[in-house]
Amino acid sequence: MEGPAFSTVAESNVYRSWNMDVIGMTNLQEAKLAREAEICYATLALVTDYDCWHPGHDAVTVGTVIEYLNKNVRNAQMIMRGAVKNLSHRPRECKCGSALKNAIFTAPSLWPEATARKLDAIIGKYRK
What we know:
Order of helices and strands: HHHHH
Shape: elongated
Strand content: under 5%
Mean pLDDT: 85
Largest sheet: none
Helix content: 40-55%
Structural class: mainly alpha
Radius of gyration: 20 Å
Number of helices: 5
Low-confidence stretches: none
Number of strands: 0
């Protein structure tokens, strides 16, 4: 879903009927942009609230979400330190690093020079 936004009870129940466990407000846009930049992407989902569907919890408020976001900062930092340490020594075997290989149809000789320079970090390897 696009956010920031709080779900209505109806929306929340639809997500639950689809067996979804996590509602992320930015994942789609971030995943698409990461793919276009040939960057591997994974979601680290840290819970801030139960959403409005849970009858045993108060309504979601901005204050509650911010409180849990602040508590989650430490957890995210610890998880990221461990992930970077573990992944930094592994070879990259995924297809993320060549996602644009067959996506660029314009011949490199026709790329505007200013655009090619600006995007060199991403498309420079396809100029050859």
